[in-house]
TrEMBL record:
The lineage of its organism: Archaea, Methanobacteriati, Methanobacteriota, Stenosarchaea group, Halobacteria. NCBIfam families: Hol_resolv_Hjc (NF040854). Pfam families: Hjc. This is Holliday junction resolvase Hjc. It comes from Salinirubrum litoreum. InterPro entries: Hjc, Hjc_arc, Restrct_endonuc-II-like, tRNA_endonuc-like_dom_sf. It catalyses: Endonucleolytic cleavage at a junction such as a reciprocal single-stranded crossover between two homologous DNA duplexes (Holliday junction). One of its GO terms (molecular function) is crossover junction DNA endonuclease activity. One of its GO terms (biological process) is DNA repair. Keywords: DNA damage, DNA recombination, DNA repair, DNA-binding, Endonuclease, Hydrolase, Magnesium, Metal-binding, Nuclease. Its cofactor is Mg(2+).
Length: 178
């Protein structure tokens, strides 16, 4: 089995695992080679949280990502309104998820995930699911993002919060981008 075939198999495995966890999920065809734009390997969401995921696997050696790969992932995720995640899978281990800033950056600016870090510190699929549905849907920064994208009106956004503190957080999040 070639490295590309193994990577494709691992991506399909990740898609199936996320689907089983309750996410709507899709694998980007050819992960970037079908278009001139860089695309994440996987998109997943549940109506409240959205993830743009770059999936990498290894038999045990550290996983490396170029600065360009991570930068393209961040750009896509920001444009899409998703959280950028790196999914690392080592043989005989479960998937581990990291935000780009959680990865070790090499002196040349690339990124690395070691197996030990993935096993000990990586988030698992269950960690990607929100604990409380109402809390997830009423995150002031996410609501502000929906307002900026025109998906939600200011009035509807204001009605989503009961507490003055949450309303202040929403206004602060809206002001942060203006």
């Amino acid at each position: 089995m070639t490295a590309n075939q193994k990577g494709d198999r691992r991506e399909r495995e990740l898609v199936n695992r996320l689907d089983e966890a309750g996410f709507a999920v899709m694998r980007a065809p050819a992960s970037g080679s079908a278009t001139t734009r860089e695309l994440p390997d996987v998109l997943a969401g549940d109506g409240g949280v959205f993830y743009a995921i770059e999936a990498k696997s290894s038999s045990g050696d550290p996983i490396y990502l170029t600065w360009e790969e991570v930068d393209a992932l961040r750009f896509f995720a920001d444009s899409f309104g998703a959280e950028a995640l790196i999914a690392a899978r080592f043989d005989r281990e479960d998937w581990a998820f990291f935000a780009p800033h959680e990865l070790h950056q090499t002196p040349k600016g690339n990124f690395r995930v070691k197996k030990e870090k993935a096993v000990e510190e990586g988030r698992r699929i269950a960690d990607l699911l929100p604990d409380d549905e109402d809390e997830r849907r009423n995150d002031p920064s996410e609501v502000a993002n929906a307002v900026r994208q025109g998906v939600l009106s200011y009035a509807d956004a204001g009605e989503m919060f009961d507490s003055t503190d949450d309303l202040r957080a929403l206004l602060a999040a809206l002001d942060a981008e203006d």
